[in-house]
Amino acid sequence: MISRVAEHCFWLARYLERAENTARVLDVNQTLLLDFIVPIDHQWKPLLIISGIHDYEGSAESEDVQRHMTWDPENACSIATSITSARENARIIREVVSHEYWERINFFYLWMQGDASRALYERDRNEFYGQVRRINQLLFGIGDGTMSHGEPWEFFLLGKYLERACQTARILDVKYHLLLPTPDLIGTPIDNAHWMAILKSCSGYEPFHKQRDGFEHGTQVADFLIFDTIFPRSVRFCLIQCREASRRISGPKNRVERNELEHMLDEAIDWLNLVGIDDLVAAGLHESLTRVVNAIHEMGGAVYRDYFEIPVERLAEMLTPTVGRQSQMQSSA
Q1: N or C: which end of the chain has fewer CB within 10 A?
Q2: DSSP H stretches of helix in 124-216
């Protein structure tokens, strides 16, 4: 499998996952603000930070932020841009994705570019964001059922779960750090509503309550979203899925050497296995989550170096035999 195809598979999944996560946090935030009074600086700015948008110079009011994060073509993290980028990656690797997959992602791209999506956005914001969430979920199901589960699929899974782990950590970090009320409101309905909003932003509200008898304090939510081993959006679960995908990509289980990405994933998972939520709170939950986010960013760089980038030294080795053969042919002539 050539690195160009692997890179497009990786980014196809990341862009789709990014579009879904953006739609999810916009929808949950809008619903939360209908029920509770939140200071203006803590209403929509945190969503920009979650998406990594630190240079936004526009108004922080509801409609401006939603428009920027949904439609702005200049915003690389907007929903429309993410779907466009995903479709472009799929177009380049048409020989890899199935016909059904290409047909559906192209349909959603055209829907997003047309008047119907704009009309739905203006008429029913919740339904619009719900439709965007279903785009990624449907496409993953189609890919899972119609594409061969070889190396291209493993790169797809690697991109999907790496993006998801990063988004879960960022949502928890930013919401916890910026949106939580002052200490005198801890344990009040407002405090609980913020924690429930964090769960809903990660699709964890229902799984959380099914696993636990009740909600007592916010660190239970942090524990669930970071450490849970069976919730598909927890940081630990996602990193384990990334490690399994990277191992299948790299080859036999009995090989001795591991690449840079596998080393990073092993270290991150080992750390999560050794610590607990009380340890993270004692060390500072914000600082601990920042460590997780930074580690995931470094993993993204490792993916590029291990699989997509061809070092100059390696390129020289690849070209040397060819040059040698040409020289021999010229000498013989």
Answers
A1: C
A2: 125-146, 151-174, 189-201, 205-211
Q: Which residues of 302-324 are buried (b: 16+ CB within 10 A; e: fewer)?
A: bbeebbeeeeeeeeeeeeeeeee
**164-181 in b/e burial notation, b at 16+ Cβ within 10 A?**
bbbbbbbbbbbbbeebbb
* Domain spans in the chain, listed from the N-terminal domain onward: 3-311
Length of the chain in residues, anyone? 333
Compute the CA torsion angle 248, 16, 231, 201 (nearest 10 deg).
160
Show Cβ contacts of residue 80 under 8 Å, excluding neighbours closer than 6 positions: 70, 71, 72, 73, 112, 113
| Token pair 């993006």: residue | 163
Q: Tokens representing 251?
A: 């080859």
Q: Which among 151, 22, 30 has a CA at the least distance from the CA of 85? A: 22
What is the pTM assigned to this prediction?
0.86
- Token code pair at residue 220: 């239970």
Q: What ranges in 228-284 are assigned the alpha helix state H?
A: 235-250, 260-274, 277-283
Residue 6 CA to residue 305 CA, distance in Å, equals 13
Distance CA 14, CA 18 (A): 6
